[in-house]
Amino acid sequence: MNSVIPVLDPASPQAEAINNLFLQVLLISAVIFAIVTGLILIAISKGRRRQTLPDQNFGSEKAEIAWVIGPVIIVLWLVAISANLVITLNAIPDVKPQSADNAEEVQDVELIITGHQWWWEVEYPKAGVISANEIHIPADPKRKFRIRINSDDVIHSFWVPQLGPKIDAIPGRDNYLWLQASKPGTYQGRCSEYCGAQHAWMNFLVIGESEEEYQKWIAGQQKKPEATTLISPLAMAGREYFFKATCPRCHKIAGTSAQAMIGPDLTHFATRSEIGSGVLTNSTENLTLWLKNPQAVKPGCKMPNFKLSEQNLKQLVAYLETLK
Ligand code: CUA
């Protein structure tokens, strides 16, 4: 699924087009490199033992014309294939490039991605689903997701090497991109614009799955988390602590009084596979580590060290793990 050099293992038509351009440029560069190196080697080997100056040539019209026209053809060809790719990648029909938040427009955007220091908010406006750092899309060569990207603070850049081009997430400006996966898989995404101390830990996952699995996932995310009666006494105590403590000042859990959108939406936290934008995999052990002191795991992140007691820590972990 995740190759060593993901950018050379494209999984969408856009990424394939980028990969093709890269390979063409690589090929032409390799040929030029071979010719130049070859000529140098020939000159070295032929002139090695010579005591006198080699033949001196001045003002060869033919040679001058050849080395002007040759590179011009190569450069024009590179310009043509690059421009062609840019036009193909930017072909997003019916998009008003700079638009206000009008409802009509939101209708046909299937996904809204907002960059934050240092995590990604993921919203499916039609389905009314909000998540973080994990994007699910149906893997289908014919299905394109039109996504809108912006930022809440500084400039970030959204990039899934196997699925297509980078696109900047800029505060106050909407950028658009097609997101598409031709085959099922888990694709690593990165923030590719330096955005502060934890830029390196602003990763996300794009999960390409069958239409059926995708619909199931959406339906699961639309539901409210489990009824409190179904959870253990430890998790119940954690729930009580969550709302008593400062957690709801930053986080949202749908169907509860926690409605803040400063940190990631926790409604279905337990269904995600990573914590802290890829800094840890989501397990009981790692969640404990994270809550114990987020600053030790991801220094500078917005979540402070709350110095929780061992008991509260256990309770909170138990509660958060019920959010499926
Ligand atoms: Cu966000 Cu780099």
TrEMBL record:
Annotated catalysed reactions: 4 Fe(II)-[cytochrome c] + O2 + 8 H(+)(in) = 4 Fe(III)-[cytochrome c] + 2 H2O + 4 H(+)(out)
Cytochrome c domain span: 233-324
Cellular component terms per the entry's GO annotation: plasma membrane
Keyword Amino-acid biosynthesis part of the UniProt annotation: no
GO biological process: ATP synthesis coupled electron transport
Enzyme Commission no: 7.1.1.9
Domain Cytochrome oxidase subunit II transmembrane region profile: 1-93
Cofactor binding comment, as recorded: Binds a copper A center.
One Pfam family per UniProt: COX2_TM
Annotated ranges, domain Cytochrome oxidase subunit II copper A binding: 106-220
Keywords: Copper, Electron transport, Heme, Iron, Membrane, Metal-binding, Oxidoreductase, Respiratory chain, Translocase, Transmembrane, Transmembrane helix, Transport
Cellular localisation: Cell membrane; Membrane
PROSITE patterns recorded: COX2, COX2_CUA, COX2_TM, CYTC
One Gene Ontology molecular-function label: cytochrome-c oxidase activity
Metal-binding found in the keyword field: yes
Known function: Subunits I and II form the functional core of the enzyme complex. Electrons originating in cytochrome c are transferred via heme a and Cu(A) to the binuclear center formed by heme a3 and Cu(B).
Family of the protein in this entry: Belongs to the cytochrome c oxidase subunit 2 family.
Protein name: Cytochrome c oxidase subunit 2
Gene giving rise to this polypeptide: coxB
